[in-house]
Amino acid sequence: MGYTVAEKILKEHLVEGEFKKGSEIGIRIDQTLTQDATGTMAYIEFEAMGIPRVRTEKSVAYIDHNTLQSGFENADDHRFIGSVAKKRGISFSRPGNGICHQVHLERFGIPGKTLIGSDSHTPTGGGLGMIAIGAGGLDVAVAMGGGTYYITYPKIVKVELKGKLSPWVSAKDVILEVLRRMSVKGGVGKIIEYCGDGVKTLSVPERATITNMGAELGATTSVFPSDERTLEFLRAQKREEVYKEISADPDAEYDEELVIELDKLEPLVACPHSPDNVKTVKELEGMKIDQVCIGSCTNSSLLDMMKVAYILRGKTVHPDVSLSIAPGSKQVLNMLSRGGELSDMIDAGARLLESACGPCIGMGQSPNSKGVSLRTFNRNFLGRSGTKDAQIYLLSPETAAISAITGVLTDPRSLGEMPQFELPATFIINDNMIALPASKEEADKVEVLKGPNIKSYPETSPLPESLHITCSLKVGDNITTDHIMPAGSKILPLRSNIPEISKYCFSVVDEKFPERALSLGTSAIIGGSNYGQGSSREHAALAPLYLGIKTVIVKSFARIHKANLVNAGILPLTFANEADYDKISAGDELCLDNLREAVKSGNTVTLKDKTSGIEAILNIELSEREREVILEGGLLDYTRERIK
After folding, report:
1. Which terminus has fewer CB within 10 Å in the chain: N or C?
2. Is 274 a catalytic residue?
3. Of 32, 40, 28, 30, which Cα lies nearest the Cα of 537?
4. What positions does the domain Aconitase/3-isopropylmalate dehydratase large subunit alpha/beta/alpha occupy (predicted)?
């Protein structure tokens, strides 16, 4: 039996475990990336390990999230990250250089390599033929120290692309179609691998759009083969020497298969408040809009921007619409400037934003009250935009641009004949905004600079013999990390200050939760299915840790968040019988006896609800390594003595 693209890369990097579906495997990590919203804590964790210098082939620290500097906090974090990077052997992408995933694709991604990043959209690298996985900051810190990264060996889903996209239908419509069919839970425990004759019709930036938003499927990652289109992109970036052809063997076997006929796709839109709530643009055409935002790590490439500029050329943004555009990198912005496309955007009345994440993570451009905002982003969770009652729709740059002109949601096929958009044979290469680290000889002279907002990692403790605790919060299905730990310009600057940011934990759901949890001392959270979907932000585990949460009991977990809970020493448990979820209420007194022994050697533990009198069997779905991590109180404690 042959191997898929994903299996070939994983097998080459296998360090621990059995190459068997469903078992835990440890893989060697070649590259890491961080961004500033998660990076400060990742580097605090790395510093706590006492390792003098990173041991990866390439580690890069990006500044792209917290670029709105309305106080000293963000600037202090950037200074801290820059100083750690210089001292510890990490390249530092300075503010203004661009969004981490776009820049990494352009300048650092290598086919066949493994990459983990403290951002859930790290799978963007799959567009280059990498195994690129979003992870918590502590996992990234461990990998930087030379440690192994662990995942459950995933199922491989074959998505066969047939034919060619019709004019004005784009890569964004491909991933929206996949989401429509598979849902935000459909990719859990799986790698999505693209193949078929349609693959060769897609450029690397288009492939990266698809793998980027594959994160919304809950998938471990997504990957394309590395072929002549990959070489074409790398040659244009003057990096052709890193090219490696990677394709699936003809007799490779897949666990699931999906076929998408590209020529039958039409423009799609994800409606509020979930990326899988997908309809055709035709179904909603004519809907009045208030705002259009173009950019994000999903759709901010040069190819996307060229199409937007063409549509805006000679037009004026509708008077009732605010249009903002954020090119994904300095390289993209520079090429738009030299090619004249930037002038087309400005002339049309677009508001040009810096090359950063911006509105996608609630950092500015919040819509008006009850506003309808069309965005080329990857997430439209409730409140993520900064306006709780806003209606956020996700769509392609082509649909966004024409709608900004008409003032209503408009099918881009109304533009008529589409010209051929060709990427340049050579991109402008200028890496002057990437600061290289100090040499090993000079590193000792570099001081790590910490501002007053930067606090230490929360205190952890080994798992007790038993837990007698209160249920401090009960929530429903599809709770996102934006519910648990909101983003936005007011909260993001506190990412390096867990005591302060914890005051906003679950504020979207229950503003009194932080105060209640602290007053209880220790407590538990009860949740529904797909708990923790969305971002890789480990703060959604660290804030509950600080607030005294000892266990989270749900119907099912999203992959990254469950791993982050384990890393934080919070015990993740699932109901053996999902009907038991309905029998437990907030405020109930809960007992978990003989807990250490159950975690050490069992697969279940009995929950006793002293308030209602019911008992429920809970599953302990942890690997042997994860059990040890939980017993010791978290990954930092577990790792400190093992990596030297």
Report:
1. N
2. no
3. 40
4. 7-407
Position 488 scores a pLDDT of 78
Q: Looking at the DSSP assignment, which residues form a beta bridge with residue 222?
A: 192
Mean pLDDT across the chain: 95
273 preceded by a cis bond (ω within 30 of 0): yes
**Residue 522 contacts residue 550 (beta carbons within 8 Å):** yes
Q: Which amino acid is at 430?
A: N
One of 119, 139, 304, 580 is an active-site residue; which one?
A: 119
Classify residue 495 by burial, with Cβ atoms within 10 Å: 0-12, 13-18, 19+.
buried
Structure confidence by residue, pLDDT tens digits, 313-347:
999 999 999 999 999 999 999 999 999 999 999 99
- DSSP letter for 279, please: E
Sheet hosting strand 155-162, strand order edge to edge: 221-223, 190-195, 155-162, 256-261
Q: Of these residues, 13, 88, 379, 561, which one is catalytic?
A: 379
C-alpha separations of 107 from 38, 82, 224, 298 in Å? 21, 19, 18, 17
Whether 187 and 211 have beta carbons less than 8 Å apart is answered as no
Residue among 496, 502, 535, 536 flagged as catalytic: 535
CA angle 276, 281, 284 (to 5 degrees): 95
Annotated catalytic, 65?
yes
Known catalytic membership, residue 119: yes
The per-residue DSSP string of 569-615 comes to TPEEEEESSGGGGGG--TT-EEEE-SHHHHHHH-SEEEEEETTT--E
Tokens 């929360």 sit on residue:
458
Strands (E), 251-340: 256-261, 268-270, 278-280, 291-294, 322-325
The better pLDDT of the pair 18, 69 is held by 18
Instruction: Tell me what pLDDT residue 71 has.
Output: 84
Q: How confident is the model at residue 644 (pLDDT cuts 50, 70, 90)?
A: low
Gyration radius of the chain's alpha carbons:
24
88 in active site: no
Phi, psi of 352 (to 5 degrees): -80, 125
- Is the Cβ–Cβ distance between 83 and 49 less than 8 Å? no
The order of strands in the sheet holding 31-35 is: 131-134, 114-117, 31-35, 58-62, 91-93, 434-435
> CA separation (Å) from 507 to 479, 483, 510, 595?
13, 7, 5, 30
Question: C-alpha angle with apex 365: 496 to 534, nearest 5 degrees?
Answer: 55
Position 317, amino acid? V
> What are φ and ψ of residue 387, in 5° steps?
-120, 110
Structure token pair of residue 483: 């519910």
Is 379 designated active site?
yes
Of residues 30, 36, 64, 482, which has the active-site annotation? 64
The continuous run of DSSP H or E covering 72 comes out as: helix 72-88
Residues with Cβ within 8 Å of 639's Cβ and at least 6 positions away in sequence, in order, are 49, 142, 145, 147
Active site residue 77: no
Please enumerate in sequence order all residues whose Cβ is within 8 A of that of 515, keeping only pairs 6 or more positions apart, or say none. Answer: none
User: Of the residues 88, 104, 107, 537, which is catalytic?
Assistant: 537
Q: How confident is the model at residue 643 (pLDDT cuts 50, 70, 90)?
A: low
**pLDDT at site 20:** 87
Query: Token pair of 587, please?
Result: 């405020």
